[in-house]
Amino acid sequence: MGLRIRQDVPHSARMYDFFLGGKDNFAVDREAAERVLTVFPTMRTAVRANRTFMHRATRALARRGLRQWLDIGTGIPTSPNLHEVAQAVEPRARVVYVDNDPVVLAHSRALMTSTPQGRTAYVHGDVRDPAAILNAPQVCETLDLSRPVVLSMVALVHFVPTLEEAHALLRQFLDPLPSGSALVLSHATAELDPVGANKVEEIYNQAGTTLRLRPEAEFATFFEGLDLLEPGITPAHRWLVPGEDTPADDLLPPTVTDAQVSFYAAVAIKP
What we know:
Elements: H1 12-19, H2 27-39, H3 43-63, E1 68-72, H4 82-89, E2 94-99, H5 102-106, E3 119-124, H6 130-134, H7 137-142, E4 150-154, H8 163-174, E5 182-188, H9 194-206, H10 216-221, E6 227-228, E7 234-235, H11 258-261, E8 263-269
Parallel strand pairs: 1-2, 1-4, 2-3, 4-5
Antiparallel strand pairs: 5-8, 6-8, 7-8
Helix pairs in contact: 1-2, 2-9, 3-4
């Protein structure tokens, strides 16, 4: 039996696709997204900032010698996808994508256009079940979990209802990974635009998607015991590797403000 794609309730991945200018969304998603834009008009800028952060973090880690990625909460494919960015630096890079939205599954072929030297795979899985993801055949056949892995969870953890649950999930994913592995996170916050961001939180929750905006102090706790890479915790658009030129595919104009983005981002290495 095929997985049912619900068109009667909005879905965060399809709303994200709409904000990025994609077409893999339904009327119910567009309606909810337009409500968000009325209270937070720069949401399109915010999601582009997240995408740009993912590009920058992926490039930086590939240049540090990492070769394996587990990308959870992948979303609907938007080129360049993570594996395209990683394999542009290191053609042997291996990437496993994970998402629980049937629409993402329907487009998963676009996530598996690997270089001949590398490899990609897709798992239809739920972040709330780390063991099922880590033990999935696609993960075991694609990644060597005895060697460093990048755990990428961009714009995902703010959908976990409680801070305690978020910590527990991260521990379950990170604990089995060896020293030298990396954590890539971004997270929505109300600290940079309290009025607009809190209204966005209200709209998501009313639409049936739990959204929890968190301050920098709480975001920082996700990296306890890890070694933050420079520039540390910053608004997503300010996460730049010191000394690195702005990449050609940077999606953001230089005039973007912290309030327009309202996401924190950081990358850390497991000692």
